[in-house]
Design brief:
With 281 residues, this protein is of the alpha/beta class. Helices cover 37% and strands 22% of the residues.
């Protein structure tokens, strides 16, 4: 696991076991705040030990940015902390969380001792959390997932964007228009750093470029997939849509971005075909 100190009180941990997923620790005199956890217990335990060593007041809150497993499965290792999320995260976990965890355990023995925790404090549009002279503004930012949120650490000028910002946007089971809108929100904030949901921390000079390229990527794949559907071409034609032609590199996350790109294309193909079929009905 990698650790990066972003500001005096903010640390980012990046998994070396799964897709460079990130978790953030915010240290205050009144307790620590954790934004997301890491999927495998061995890494989240290291994160917990680090936070407790630097924060004698203990861990007060764990914020879950959305319901996806790679961000939430470590939350059971913080039983003393209040769990915060969007309302939809709580509803989704109550509905399908136990079944999804059982399936994950069957496939991945390292998750055998993971327990599902349900958020206690939820919100709809936004929430201000104040702790030890820190203000954390939680804001709904759908698109990657309907329940996705971002955490703006105001005094530190850091945005924990989670999967709203990643090396390539992922919209499978999400919505590209909503994600583009959420990305535009970021440009209105005065930021020094953005913590991506997967991959490294963005510096001030990289933020606008990354946001703009992500919005352009979403526009590009929508246009290209829509053309394929309109021409009645088969699904196999999606393979001709190159990720680099849409402004994103195929290198980050150990090449995983190429798989995510193909998943986006397949998802869009289904969604656009359904849209046209409904319009014709």
């Amino acid at each position: 696991m990698l650790r990066e100190r972003v500001t005096e009180d903010v640390y980012v941990f990046i998994s070396q076991l799964y897709a460079e997923v990130s978790a953030t620790v915010v240290i205050t005199p009144e307790g620590a705040v954790i934004v997301d956890t890491l999927p495998f217990p061995q890494e989240t335990r290291q994160l917990r030990e680090f936070a407790l060593e630097r924060c004698p007041a203990g861990i007060r809150y764990v914020i879950l940015t959305h319901h996806h497993a790679d961000h939430i499965y470590g939350s059971y290792l913080f039983p003393e902390a209040e769990l915060i999320s969007h309302r939809l995260t709580r509803e989704t976990l109550l509905k399908v969380g136990a079944e999804s965890l059982a399936q994950a355990k069957a496939q991945t023995p390292a998750l055998a001792h993971v327990e599902l925790r349900i958020p206690q404090l939820v919100f709809e549009t936004d929430l201000l959390l104040r702790l030890g002279e820190k203000t954390i503004h939680l804001m709904h930012a759908p698109g990657h997932a309907p329940d996705a949120i971002m955490a703006h650490l105001r005094e530190d000028k850091v945005l924990v964007a989670s999967d709203v910002v990643t090396p390539v946007p992922l919209i499978v089971r999400g919505n590209s228009e909503e994600l583009a809108k959420s990305l535009r929100q970021i440009k209105s904030l005065n930021l020094e750093n953005v913590v991506q949901g997967h991959g490294g921390v963005l510096l001030r000079g990289e933020i606008d470029e990354t946001v703009d390229s992500s919005i352009a990527y979403l526009r590009c794949i929508d246009k290209k997939v829509r053309t394929i559907v309109e021409r009645g071409q088969p699904r196999s034609a999606l393979a001709k849509i190159d990720i680099e032609d849409c402004g994103k590199s195929r290198i980050p996350l150990g090449g995983l971005v190429q798989r995510l790109h193909l998943a986006n294309l397949d998802y869009l193909y289904n969604e656009i075909r359904r849209e046209y079929q409904q319009a014709a009905a």
